[in-house]
Amino acid sequence: MENSNLSKLKNKIRIILRSYHYKNIIEAVNNIMSIAFKTGSVFKGPVPLPVIKKKFAVNRSPHSDKESMDIFEIRIYKRLLDIIQPSPSTVDELKKLNLSSGVDINIII
């Protein structure tokens, strides 16, 4: 009985999405959820992970007035999605998945 529980735990796909644009990551999550739903897989998520904010201070003028600076910020949005019981058709559809260019996807099996 323990072997069947271990095989269920190992049969999982974890998907981590990263993007600079909030709308792109929502669209990608919706595409992945629709694929999982169509193929009959069980999924959990999406779990919003903390937003990473990177700030950069740049001098306005290269020669004088070092106290005058512009501050720029980059935000990185992340989502976590788990597909618990993937079918072979789910894996095939995820391989064919077409995401926008601004979304980074990391799939862990």
TrEMBL record:
Limits of the Small ribosomal subunit protein uS10 domain: 14-108
Keywords assigned: Ribonucleoprotein, Ribosomal protein
GO cellular component: ribonucleoprotein complex; ribosome
Biological processes, Gene Ontology terms: translation
Keyword Ribonucleoprotein: yes
Keyword presence, Oxidoreductase: no
SMART domains: Ribosomal_S10
Quaternary structure and interacting proteins, as annotated: Part of the 30S ribosomal subunit.
Function, as annotated: Involved in the binding of tRNA to the ribosomes.
NCBIfam families, alphabetized: PRK00596.1 (NF001861), rpsJ_bact (TIGR01049)
Protein name as annotated: Small ribosomal subunit protein uS10
Organism of this sequence: Candidatus Pinguicoccus supinus
